[in-house]
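FW: tagging you since you asked about this chain on Friday. Here's the raw sequence from the shared folder, copied in full. Didn't touch anything.
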Amino acid sequence: MMFRWKATAATLAIAALALTGCSGATDGGGTGEGSGGTLTLGAITPPTTFDPAGSEWGNRAPYYQAVFDTLLLATPEGTIEPWLATDWSYNDDNTVLTLTLRDDVTFSDDSKLTAQVVVDNLNRFKSGTSPDANYFADVASFEAPDDATVVITLNAPNPALLNYLTRDPGLVGSGESLDNDDLATNPIGSGPYVLDTAATVTGTSYTYTKNPDYWNPDVQHYDKLVINVLADATASLNAIKAGEANGVKLASNDNLAEVEGAGWTVNANELDFQGLLLLDRAGTMNPALADVRVRQALNYAFDRDGLLQALQAGNGTVTTQVFPKSSAAYDPELDDYYTYDPKKAKELLAEAGYADGLTLSMPSSTLLGASTYTLIEQQLNDVGIKVEYTDPGNNFIADLLAPKYAASFMALEQNPDWQLIQFMIAPTAIFNPFGYDDPKVDEYISQIQFGDEKTQESVAKELNKYIVEQAWFAPFYRVQGSFATDANTTVEMLPTNAYPAIYDFTPKS
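HL: got it, structure written out here
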């Protein structure tokens, strides 16, 4: 369950809108036969920097995880395990987290891991340029009372803190490297691999060599790691058919039959949901959305099964809730709370005073697929809702969060409970750009933040049911995320990250 202090890790990457970079390849692909070979991977976007303070996760995770260790480790089983930190504990009110560090970790510049090094990294991340820097917004201080102990003091309980330490906020670079002029391109970590800057082409291909002094050799399954940027579906499919990689993240499910036909395995998880974000629930921009009956009508207007088949070839699961299966808030009955019922939608619109219909202005993006917007428009027109689209180009996210639109189609990651609340539901959540505030939701959030585990889990379910009934969103489906591996390679997928962990790739014997 998500609120246990052993919980699943999460990312907040909006992967569908970050598919940038150049394709590339090396001659090391397809050579992962047995331990000691080369693992060649395909990713859909390059890192923007190797400075841990500007790092990201999601589809950029493997670049960082190869060279840096995190304080804690997220596993395919959905638990959090020791990594650089061997133990952790909270005080009685969960506002002070104490971490105990390993004493046998050396960075690739031969400097040592100490608590002060960790504190320096944590402080840099909090004040850095990472889009996830706000994960530490509630942190009052980071302290190192001795070389082996890190103390994190919070202004209020944060049930997601351990999860955050399994990803980019938990990355630890060498203390002696943090002021280096070339930190953005020459990372110094304690991870299983070392970036070979001479063999790396920024934006195209990244080469790593095995760290000979790594503290945990059991997870070093290869002597060499190459990550090539394959920015579109054609480049990915070509690399697969040519045998130029061992594992490739697929940006879409359009070519799964060809991938499997090439003898590759498609490893799947369901990370993202796609659907409408009904952001202006107070009706400040579009008064109609203030009426719950209008928001419910929007939910009844969509043929989710048809959309899943038409847009994702059936690769996913229909849902009307934004919380994932791995969440304590998840309720299987809420996957089909709203059925496809255009007649019901029209009745609700009429009851709300919109028998003659209404107009809904939304942004569009070519990255999310032209056919998606056509089908949405058709189904809303069928119940009397006219759609007006505007393409803001590269400003899609910025304009959405400004906010300049009352509603939008979007693909977003389904996070564990507290992360999702802080991401989409709380008055200060980034994807609550109108700052919509519901006293009942505020009370649920307070109970989750300050309650014990049993309270957190039961209240999370109540919160989920309430926002589904109140139609805060109109989800269509959880889309299958696909990662292809060749005949020489196996991988275990993480339950809430787009890209598998570097440690979870292994050669077939």
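FW: Residues 1-34 have pLDDT under 50 and may be disordered.
HL: agreed, and The two ends are 35 Å apart (CA to CA).
FW: great, closing this out.
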